[in-house]
């Protein structure tokens, strides 16, 4: 398992980060999330507008893919989490998948937009500009249903995990 790549994706507010961390703990793999990187990159800068946030997101993805490549090239495995988008993320993810046995886990829930609105109302790190994202997003998650040709599992996160966490971890453990 030490050299596996577990990709956890899905639309915003579908429980990706929580699930990725659970998988990482269960499999003793480091977890790298795009949001952690984006927040760290933003630390020395003043908050900008939506365009600034998007540019910071592009930089965060560059770091995410570079760090993941270095970890995998070093013979280690990891869990990689983000709201990867079909088309944009496919090639970088396929490049990583060529370096190690890989599985993709996609989180879904019909209540993602409602959850996102609740999260936006609570507030989180200043870099995310959730209000602006909420104005642009109608809740359609089709752009986040990544499939890069590796084994893939869709997890309903509406109320816990379906399939259950044990089955999800077993799926990730069996990466080939």
List keywords for this structure.
single chain; 176 residues; alpha/beta; five-stranded parallel sheet; 7 helices; 5 strands
Write a structural description.
With 176 residues, the protein is α/β, with parallel strands linked by helices. The chain has a single domain, classed as P-loop containing nucleotide triphosphate hydrolases (Rossmann fold, 3-Layer(aba) Sandwich), CATH 3.40.50.300. Helix content is 45%, strand content 14%. It is built from seven helices and five strands. The chain has helices at residues 16-27, 34-42, 50-73, 90-97, 112-122, 130-136, 165-173; strands spanning 5-10, 31-33, 78-81, 102-108, 152-156. Strands 2-3-1-4-5 form a five-stranded parallel beta sheet, with helices on both faces. It is globular and about 40 Å long. The N and C termini lie close together (9 Å).
């Amino acid at each position: 398992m030490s050299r596996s790549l577990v990709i956890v994706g899905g639309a915003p507010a579908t429980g990706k980060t929580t699930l990725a961390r659970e998988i990482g703990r269960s499999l003793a793999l480091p977890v790298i999330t795009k949001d952690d990187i984006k927040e760290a990159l933003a630390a020395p800068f003043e908050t900008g507008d939506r365009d600034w946030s998007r540019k910071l997101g592009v930089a965060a993805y560059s770091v995410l893919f570079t760090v993941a490549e270095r970890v995998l090239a070093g013979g280690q495995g990891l869990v990689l989490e983000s709201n990867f988008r079909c088309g944009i993320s496919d090639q970088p993810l396929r490049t990583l998948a060529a370096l190690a046995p890989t599985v993709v886990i996609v989180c879904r829930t019909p209540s993602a937009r409602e959850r996102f609105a609740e999260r936006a109302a609570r507030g989180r790190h200043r870099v995310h500009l959730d209000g602006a994202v909420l104005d642009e997003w109608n809740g359609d998650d089709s752009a986040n249903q990544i499939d890069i040709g590796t084994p893939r599992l869709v997890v309903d996160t509406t109320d816990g995990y379906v399939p259950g966490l044990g089955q999800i971890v077993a799926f990730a453990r069996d990466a080939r």
